[in-house]
């Protein structure tokens, strides 16, 4: 049985429930333990001005943990993966792994998989990106250069983000360091608090089923109004298809030119983070994988306005409804590509394509539901369609 002695700060790395596995004596210490537990998936890659103040818990720093008995909040045991001589507890990551949990499980508690992750040694091995390898730091348990989990790495940056505080007011101070920071992802089902305001924080989080629930009735209403304004019943579907084509183009333009705008000043970095940057920083944040209706309504209204200007009233209604339906499909597809288990070659290729955009080259591959516009405008990944590309994750 593997036994390890860890200071309490590193307990945050282990997928364990603080209250269940540590004997915390007083309420203040219990509260602090919960705060540290929140950081369990982000320690090691956080940029923080100051370490978390855990002086209240100093007397508990010599607690011993048996890795055999450590569980996370879902009752799972620690899952130890050895990469280039360093040991990682990847239990919190199993369900989030883009290639599925089984690909990791077959290598747990076994030989070093460092070369395998670089695409070497085994036929068909996936060459993991630098970002994917960097994300492992979140789950570091023991290695050749083990360090305290809460210690920030020396980077020489003028400003560092404290993820224990609302993050939106801070990102603008990163300046030219913002682009590198926002494209160094943190893998966790949760992300830090965005806003000071409870109201703003609540509207920034959205369940996936909210999208069809809010916008689905408007799609139906738009077709009813189109018919009322004289569009023949047989023409509703063709005009909806036209609308979906308009949306796919609209989707590409927004993603490429707005969501990936250059951000180096306080206000551009803040705007970029709120619009899209948060998704690259926290790509598995399940509460922020679809657009909040309060936010998407601005773009949807713009699409409606454009349809009314260009088309007659009845046709505009039908085209708008088709575009809105395409948006619903887009948002749900995007959620699925991050969290779903793909079961067809087409879905598998779409997932690979999108994750290539996240973890390899974020300056191309902007299409989510289709690569068509990337092909038209020359923003396909440079190795798209090659044998190397099919091996990448």
From TrEMBL:
It is found in: Endoplasmic reticulum membrane. Heme binds at residues 97, 128. Its main location: endoplasmic reticulum. It comes from the Eukaryota. Its EC number is 1.-.-.-. It is an enzyme of class 1 (oxidoreductase). It is a multi-pass membrane protein. Pathway: Sphingolipid metabolism; Lipid metabolism. This is Fatty acid 2-hydroxylase. Gene3D superfamilies: Cytochrome b5-like heme/steroid binding domain (3.10.120.10). Plays an essential role in the synthesis of galactosphingolipids of the myelin sheath. Responsible for the synthesis of sphingolipids and glycosphingolipids involved in the formation of epidermal lamellar bodies critical for skin permeability barrier. Belongs to the sterol desaturase family. SCS7 subfamily. Zn(2+) binds at residues 255, 260, 276, 279-280, 334, 338, 354, 357-358. Binds 2 Zn(2+) ions per subunit that likely form a catalytic dimetal center. Its cofactor is Fe cation; Zn(2+). It holds the Pfam family Cyt-b5. One of its GO terms (cellular component) is endoplasmic reticulum membrane. The lineage of its organism: Eukaryota, Viridiplantae, Streptophyta, Embryophyta, Marchantiophyta. One of its GO terms (molecular function) is oxidoreductase activity. The chain crosses the membrane at residues 233-254, 289-307, 319-337. Keywords: Endoplasmic reticulum, Fatty acid biosynthesis, Fatty acid metabolism, Heme, Iron, Lipid biosynthesis, Lipid metabolism, Membrane, Metal-binding, Oxidoreductase, Transmembrane, Transmembrane helix, Zinc. Residues 62-141 form the Cytochrome b5 heme-binding domain. Coiled coil: none annotated.
């Amino acid at each position: 049985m593997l036994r390890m002695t860890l200071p309490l700060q590193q307990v945050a790395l282990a997928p364990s429930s603080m209250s269940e596995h540590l004997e915390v004596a007083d309420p203040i210490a219990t509260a602090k333990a919960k705060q540290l537990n929140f950081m369990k998936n982000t320690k090691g890659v956080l940029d923080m001005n100051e370490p978390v103040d855990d002086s209240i818990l100093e007397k508990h720093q010599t607690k011993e943990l048996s890795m055999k008995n450590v569980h996370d909040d879902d009752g799972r045991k620690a899952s130890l993966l050895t990469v280039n001589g360093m040991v990682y507890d990847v239990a919190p990551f199993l369900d989030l792994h883009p290639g599925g949990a089984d690909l990791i499980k077959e290598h747990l508690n076994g030989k070093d998989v460092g070369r395998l992750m670089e695409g070497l040694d085994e036929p068909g091995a996936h060459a993991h990106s630098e970002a994917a390898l960097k994300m492992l730091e979140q789950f570091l348990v023991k290695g050749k250069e083990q360090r305290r989990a809460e210690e920030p790495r020396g980077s020489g940056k003028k400003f560092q983000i404290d993820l224990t505080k609302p993050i939106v007011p801070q990102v603008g101070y990163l300046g030219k360091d913002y682009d590198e920071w926002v494209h160094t992802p943190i893998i966790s089902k949760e992300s830090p608090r965005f806003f000071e305001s409870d109201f703003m924080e609540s509207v920034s989080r959205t369940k996936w089923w909210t999208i069809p629930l809010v916008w689905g009735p408007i799609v139906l209403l738009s077709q009813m109004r189109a018919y009322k304004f004289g569009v023949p019943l047989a023409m509703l579907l063709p005009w909806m298809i036209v609308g979906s084509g308009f949306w796919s183009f609209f989707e590409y333009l927004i993603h490429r030119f707005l969501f990936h705008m250059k951000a180096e000043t306080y206000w551009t970095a803040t705007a970029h983070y709120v619009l899209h940057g948060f998704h690259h920083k926290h790509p598995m944040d399940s509460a922020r994988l679809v657009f909040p209706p309060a936010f998407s309504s601005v773009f949807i209204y713009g699409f409606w306005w454009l349809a009314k200007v260009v088309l007659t009233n009845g046709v505009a209604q039908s085209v708008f409804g088709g575009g809105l339906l395409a948006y619903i499909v887009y948002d749900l597809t995007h959620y699925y590509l991050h969290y779903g288990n793909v079961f067809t070659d087409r879905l598998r290729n779409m997932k690979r394509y999108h994750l290539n955009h996240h973890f390899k080259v974020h300056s191309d591959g902007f299409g989510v539901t289709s690569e068509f516009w990337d092909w038209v405008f020359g923003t396909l990944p440079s190795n798209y369609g090659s044998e190397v590309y099919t091996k990448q994750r």
